[in-house]
Amino acid sequence: MLEKVKKVIACELDTRLVGELQKRVQGTCLANKLEIKVGDVLKTDLPFFDTCVANLPYQISSPFVFKLLLHRPFFRCAILMFQREFALRLVAKPGNKLYCRLSINTQLLARVDHLMKVGRNNFKPPPKVESSVVRIEPKNPPPPINFQEWDGLVRIAFVRKNKTLSAAFKSSAVQQLLDQNYRIHCSIHNIEIPEDFKIAEKIQMVLKNTGFSEKRARSMDIDDFIR
Question: How far is CA 187 from CA 152, 153, 179, 181, in A?
Fold first, then answer.
C-alpha cells in the first residue's frame, strides 16, 4: 500500500504489532508516508481519508461499518474483510433468510458488493470460520432521512422479522415507547392530543392507511420502510 499511495494512516491496538510495523519501514523512503494511530479504532477520531482497507477483528465488524458510514467528510470506498456470514448479511436482499436490520441499514447508506471468498486455510493458524472481502461505497449525498429515527423503526420491525407489522407493533413495550415519543413530538410542535387518544389505534390506522399491516419485515425493501 505504501508503494501505491501518497499516505497510509494505520490504526492498531497491539503495541507489539506497531513496533514491528515501524521496524519494517525504518530507514526506508516509505517511512515518511506512514502514520500510525495507536489505540482502539472504535474510540479513535478518524482522519480525512479517501479509501479504507481493513482486516478487522470480527467482533467489531458491525460498529465499525456504521462508524465508517456515518463518518464525514465522505470517503470513496472501503475494502473490508469480514466473517463470511456477516458479509452475506451485508449484501442480503428482501426474502433472503439472512436479510436483517444490518442488511437494510447498510444498504440505505451505501452500495455493498461481495468481492471474494477467503478460505480459512489462507490463515495461520486456520480460524474456525470462513471469510469474505466486501466493498462498501457510501451514497453521496445520503438519503434525506434521520438515521436515528429510521433505525428505531427497523429495529422494532426486525425484532421478529417473520411476524406481520401489525403484530410487531402490538407489543406493550413498543406501544409504551411510541406513546412517549408521540406525546413529546406533539408537545414540541404544539399539536393538541385528544383526551381519548390511544397510541394503539394511531399505530393500526397508520399501518392500515399505508397498506403495511400484513407485511413482514423479512420481505420489505428500503422503499417500503421509507413509505
Answer: 20, 21, 12, 10
pTM over 0.85: yes
| CA 38, chain centre distance (Å) | 24
Q: Looking at the structure, give the CATH architecture of the domain made up of residues 40-138.
A: 3-Layer(aba) Sandwich (3.40)
55 is an annotated ligand-binding site residue: yes
Tell me if 40 is assigned to a ligand binding site: yes
Cβ atoms within 10 Å of 88's Cβ, excluding its own: 18
As its CATH architecture, domain 147-226 has: Orthogonal Bundle (1.10)
- Residues 192-224: pLDDT tens digits? 999 999 999 999 999 999 999 999 999 999 999
CA 147/CA 7 separation, integer angstroms: 32
Q: Is 32 annotated as a binding residue?
A: no
User: Tell me: the pLDDT tens digits for 163-178?
Assistant: 999 999 999 999 999 9
38 - beta bridge partners? 12
pLDDT of 8:
97
Residue 195 annotated in ligand binding? no
What is the reported pLDDT for 97? 96
d(Cα 98, Cα 163) in Å, to the nearest integer? 16
